[in-house]
Every structure is written in structure tokens, then in C-alpha cells.
Design a protein that fits this description.
heterodimer, A: alpha+beta, Butyryl-Coa Dehydrogenase, subunit A, domain 1, Butyryl-CoA Dehydrogenase, subunit A, domain 2, four-stranded mixed beta sheet, about 15% strand, B: alpha/beta, Rossmann fold, two-stranded antiparallel sheet
């Protein structure tokens, strides 16, 4: 399909593909196996200027917005769905600053993120507050020029390895959703510790840890936006970042599809390549159609977002994430099926792709939450007509 | 400091075929790439520039399509490029090439260090780098595997030898040819790719570089190619069978017969 990418976007795709093929592919099993953080790859991405493709030029990026981010993440995830999270989850942690931060905060934090010198992370989820983020228990109590944070965040991607954190806490527990605020934290702040590293099913090259706040003193100037506006910032961030997860899912699916086609053409059974059997052909045809449909929906969403800065795009964003992640799960499962017994063996790449795909249906809002968001917007839009 | 890198565009030899009737490479349809050893020279120039400040210029002598190689070098961090191209340069051997590039470097003006790959993967002569240095009458060190220290007056380098390395101090301006042990070349960067797209690359002719007609191209080349041939393939070895003792005995016997022991 022709997507009419700009010259700059085509360069981004070519460059990301080169890094994926030359630098990531040879080491993907290593990082999956050892669960080490892929610092050498982060350095490659930084040297190639890919860390800041979505950050405005005045803060050291390329100003390409969500579409640029989507292109990089998709291309990297075709080869490995976990390693690229160092970059993709940094975008998630950066969006609160981009969307709600003041000029000083942007000048202070964005250039180092754009250059790849520092990674970021997003701290919203808690053990008792997953889909229901407003039930969070972390508190931020104002004391003089500081906010004192107490509580624990869990399942935080890049935690421990990132330098910059955007963290949500209740400044006014009595006000419910309107009592949440967003803060910028830096690794090394007193009272800010990390919990154990989680052992995961997939995306094992990506680090996931707890954030623990024990009377952590955060300077007042690190509050993003106004007190009580945290939930709005979180929602705006998730609207902006979900296409990134969709891109991850799309990349994994597209990678699995390629592997499945190549394998089907070389695997001989009953005296002929299994690609000559209609059973396999129809599977491949369905996989390819779904991947292309996911790509169309995602690119169009990303372009719409970039063309309308500040406009809420909850519905489209949720649709692109929901569809791409469901496609990723189906396509990777079928890729394993086409590989047969070999698909189940770790020496072949598709079982990892299936493990990596699963998370895209869960984080940054489960598929069920995406459906809630979509339906809620459908009902609102319909009600507004009458 | 000003670093000049000399590069060559060569056929991608991983899949090149040889025409058995003429003994020459079949170049049609073969992708052209930057000579792999020159990639280390490019990377080293970019690293030196990052280390000491200054700028890096890349030059090549070749047909107009060699501009692709120069743009690739810019994408990897080189600041500007010059293509030395003229029909009169065709058929140049290593002497005429060294002469032409040396003249182009004179035309560039001032520089501190010239970097070349140790050799090109098509000709494999390793002569052009040192040749340029001789033509320019500057010192050179070949097979450099590490630049330990450098300033605008001199450099301390490690020269790769078969049994270790030599530590050499050389005055600058000078020339080095580098081996692959010196660094790991980076991939292009997005900023570099954009600069490469926009770069204006001047084409310098024999006239621009003040080259004597009799010193360039086929006319200026003292090398006469008498015959090109592929060496006959090595005959297959012999595999011994039997117990270890039997094989050892047979081996000793055969080595004796061959008067090796």
C-alpha cells in the first residue's frame, strides 16, 4: 500500500529499518533470554537521531509528531517488540511534559530526551489502580516549596533505567478524579527508590519495576500544569501515546507475517512447499489484510492527531490501539501455527513475537478499556446531535 | 583541525562474478558501495572531528555516480564532499590516481590529516594512500589501528604489524591509512541524511585540479596490464583414514617423501 510518506518520513523508515536489521536482529534472542536492558541499542538510536523524532525542533527534536514516532516504533518492532520500548515508553513518559509542561520544564527536560541522552518513564499504575486509575493511593502533600510524595507505582516500563519520570499522585484525596496531579521526578531524588525488576512473559528486553516514594521531596516547580489537573494530563497523554502501542503491535504483526510467508515458501511437506496449500494461503491472506487495515487506521489516526494539536482524539486513538493489538495477537498466533512444531521452539523467531504481542492488548488500557472509550465517545457524539 | 578522507566506490564484492574469458569483474547490475576499509577512515575522521573540533572533507576520484558514495559519507557525519571527475581520468592506475588525488588535495588548500582505508577491495593494492603522501611530500603511516594522541602539530599512532604493533610519532600534516581494528563505523544519522540530501557537491575536472595531461588516466599510468587470469583452483587435500597411530605414521611418511621433514 502506498502511504505517501514525506521524504523525511521515508528517511526515518529507512534508517530505523537499517538499525533494526543490522543492530537489533543479531542480538534480539540475547536480550530476550538475559532480560538485560539494551543500552548499546539505545546508543545506536540516539546516534541516529531517532530518539527525538516526535519532539518539536525548538527542543532538539525533529518535530514530526505522532506519525514520526509511529513509523520508528513500527519499523523497530518488525524485528523486536521489546527493545524498541526504551524509545517508545520514553515517549509515553515525555508526553505529559510536552502536553502540559511549561516552557521552563520543556527547556529543562526535552533536549536530553530528544538527543537520547536520557530515557523517560510514565508512572500511573498502582497495585490497586490499574484500569481504575483514579483509585490510586500515592499522595503528594504540599509542604512549603515542596510536594512530599508517598506511595508505590507498579509495572512501570523503563523504571530504574530512565532518568526522568512523570508521576501521578493525589494532591487532594477528597476530590477524587479532580484531586490528582502530575509531577516530574528525577532518578536519584531523595526518597525515590525502585522495586524489584519484574519477570515477564514477553518484551523481556524492556525493564519493568516499581517506583517507591518514601517522603520524596519534589520541588514545587516540578508540578506539571495545575494542581488537580493530573487526570486530564494522563488522559491526554494516553490519547497521544496509544498510537505508539498500536505501532508496536503493528510492527510485531508485520514482522510475524513476513516470517510466516518466508517459512511457508521453504517448508516442504507432501512433496511441495506448504505455501502451495490453500489452507496456508488463506491464513496468510487474512493475516496480510488485517495488518494492512491496522496500518491504514493507525497512520490516518496519527496524521489526524498531528494536524489537530490540542484536539482530543480519544476515540480514534483507542480504535487504532484496539485493532492493531488484536491483529497482532491473531497474526502472531497464526504465524506460530504456520511454523508448526518449529514455531513453538525458541530457536525460531515467532514464538517470541507471540509472547511480545500479548502485552499490547493489556498496557496503556486493556482492549476492554479501549472498547469502553470508543463506545462512550459514540454515545456522546450521538447525544450531541440531538 | 581539517581532516580529509579519500574514498573509493567499489563493486559490492559479496556477490560479484568474474568473466572467465577476460578475467575482469562483471560490473553490470552489481551494486556499488563505499570501499569497506574506507568506512573506517570516514568514521575515524568523524570521531577526530568530535574529539578535536574542526571539519572533515571527503573526496573521491570516479565517475559521476560516485557522488552516491560521497553523499553516504556526509550522512555518516562528514561536512563536505568533492567529486574529482573527468573522462580524462579513466583507466588510471595507482600512480595516476595518487597524482590526481594529491593535486585535488593541493587545490583544497590547508589540511592537518589525510585518512584513507588501507586498501580497496577491488584492486587490493594498498598503494594509493602512501602514493598520495609521496606526491604531497608529507609523512605517512600505513595500517594504523589506533590514534592514541593527536594535535595540530603531531600524532602518536599504533601501526598494526603481523607480530604486534609499532608505536609511532609523526609530524602533521600527514597521511594515515587505517585498518578495520581502528573503530566500528556508525550508521548514518537522520540529521546526516538530511544534510546529505541537501549537500551541493562540486565536480572538479582535470583543469580544476591543475592536472598535467600526461600524468592522468590511461596515458599517465605506468602500469601495463599484460594479462589477466584467475589462478587455477587449488586441488583438494587428501584425507587420511585409520587409527590415530596409522594416520600419524602415514603423515610422517608422506612429509618425508615430500622432503618437508
Amino acid at each position: 500500500m502506498e502511504y505517501f510518506l514525506t521524504e523525511e518520513q521515508q528517511m526515518i523508515v529507512d534508517l530505523a529499518r537499517k538499525i533494526a536489521q543490522e543492530k537489533i536482529k543479531p542480538v534480539r534472542e540475547h536480550y530476550d533470554e538475559t532480560e538485560e536492558f539494551p543500552w548499546p541499542i539505545v546508543e545506536e538510536l540516539a546516534k541516529a537521531d531517532l530518539c527525538g523524532v516526535y519532539i518539536p525542533q525548538e527542543y532538539g527534536g525533529f518535530g514530526g509528531g505522532v506519525m514520526n514516532l509511529v513509523l520508528v516504533v513500527e519499523e523497530l518492532c518488525k524485528v523486536d517488540g521489546g527493545i524498541s520500548l526504551a524509545l517508545a515508553a520514553t515517549a509515553l513518559g515525555t508526553f505529559p511534559i510536552l502536553l502540559g509542561g511549561n516552557e521552563e520544564q520543556k527547556k529543562k527536560y526535552l533536549p536530553d530526551i530528544a538527543s537520547g541522552k536520557k530515557l523517560a518513564a510514565f508512572g500511573l499504575t498502582e497495585p490497586e489502580a490499574g484500569s481504575d486509575a483514579t483509585s490510586m493511593r500515592t499522595t503528594a502533600k504540599k509542604e512549603g516549596d515542596y510536594y512530599v510524595l508517598n506511595g508505590t507505582k507498579c509495572f512501570i516500563t523503563n523504571a530504574g533505567d530512565a532518568e526522568t519520570y512523570t508521576v501521578f499522585a493525589k494532591t487532594n484525596p477528597g476530590r477524587g478524579p479532580r484531586g490528582i496531579s502530575c509531577f516530574i521526578l528525577e532518578k536519584g531524588m531523595k526518597g525515590f527508590e525502585f522495586g524489584k525488576k519484574e519477570k515477564k512473559m514477553g518484551i523481556r528486553a524492556s525493564s519493568t519495576r516499581e517506583l517507591i516514594f518514601n517522603n520524596c521531596m519534589v520541588p514545587r516547580e516540578n508540578l506539571i500544569g495545575k494542581e488537580g489537573h493530573g487526570l486530564l494530563i494522563a488522559q491526554g497523554t494516553l490519547d497521544t501515546s496509544r498510537p505508539g502501542v498500536a505501532a508496536q503491535a503493528l510492527g510485531i504483526a508485520a514482522g510475524a507475517l513476513e516470517e510466516a510467508i518466508s517459512y511457508a515458501r521453504t517448508r516442504v511437506q507432501f512433496g511441495q512447499p506448504i505455501s502451495s496449500f490453500q489452507a496456508i494461503q488463506h491464513m496468510l491472506a487474512d493475516m496480510a489484510t488485517e495488518v494492512e487495515a491496522a496500518r491504514c487506521l493507525l497512520y490516518q489516526t496519527a496524521r489526524m492527531m498531528d494536524a489537530n494539536p490540542g484536539k482530543r482524539t480519544t476515540k480514534e486513538s483507542a480504535m487504532s490501539k484496539l485493532y492493531a493489538s488484536e491483529v497482532a495477537m491473531r497474526v502472531t498466533t497464526n504465524a506460530v501455527q504456520i511454523f508448526g512444531g518449529y514455531g513453538y521452539i525458541r530457536e525460531y523467531p515467532v514464538e517470541k513475537m507471540m509472547r511480545d504481542a500479548k502485552i499490547t492488548q493489556i498496557y496503556e488500557g486493556t482492549s476492554q478499556i479501549q472498547r469502553n472509550e470508543i463506545a462512550l465517545n459514540l454515545i456522546k457524539e450521538n447525544a450531541a446531535k440531538k | 583541525m581539517h581532516f580529509i578522507v579519500c574514498i573509493k566506490q567499489v563493486p559490492n564484492t559479496t556477490n560479484v562474478q568474474i568473466d572467465s574469458s577476460t578475467g575482469t569483474l562483471k560490473r553490470e547490475g552489481v551494486e556499488s558501495i563505499i570501499n569497506p576499509f574506507d568506512e573506517y577512515a570516514i568514521e575515524e575522521a568523524v570521531r577526530l572531528k568530535e574529539r578535536t573540533g574542526g571539519k572533515a572533507t571527503v573526496i573521491t576520484m570516479g565517475p559521476p555516480q560516485a557522488e552516491t558514495a560521497l553523499r553516504e559519507a556526509i550522512a555518516r557525519g562528514i561536512d563536505n564532499a568533492i567529486l574529482v571527475t573527468d573522462r580524462a581520468f579513466a583507466g588510471a592506475d595507482t600512480w595516476a590516481t595518487s597524482y590526481t588525488l594529491a593535486n585535488a588535495i593541493k587545490a583544497i588548500g590547508s589540511y592537518d590529516l589525510i585518512l584513507c582505508g588501507k586498501q580497496a577491495t577491488d584492486g587490493d593494492t594498498a598503494q594509493v594512500g602512501p602514493g598520495i603522501a609521496e606526491m604531497l611530500d608529507i609523512p605517512h603511516v600505513a595500517y594504523v589501528k589506533k590514534i592514541e594522541d593527536i594535535n595540530d602539530k603531531n600524532a602518536r599512532v599504533e601501526r598494526m604489524m603481523e607480530d604486534g604493533y609499532d608505536l609511532i610519532e609523526m609530524p602533521l600534516p600527514g597521511l594515515m591509512t587505517v585498518v578495520k581494528e581502528i573503530n566500528t563505523p556508525r550508521l548514518p544519522s537522520l540529521r546526516g541524511m538530511m544534510a546529505s540530501k541537501k549537500a551541493q557537491i562540486p565536480h572538479w575536472t582535470a583543469q580544476t585540479v591543475n592536472a598535467e595531461k600526461n600524468n592522468i588516466g590511461l596515458t599517465g599510468s605506468p602500469t601495463q596490464v599484460m594479462k589477466i587470469f584467475s589462478p587455477p583452483p587449488r586441488p583438494g587435500g587428501q584425507t587420511l583414514a585409520g587409527s590415530q597411530e596409522e594416520m600419524a605414521e602415514t603423515l610422517v611418511e608422506k612429509l618425508r617423501q615430500a622432503q618437508i621433514i
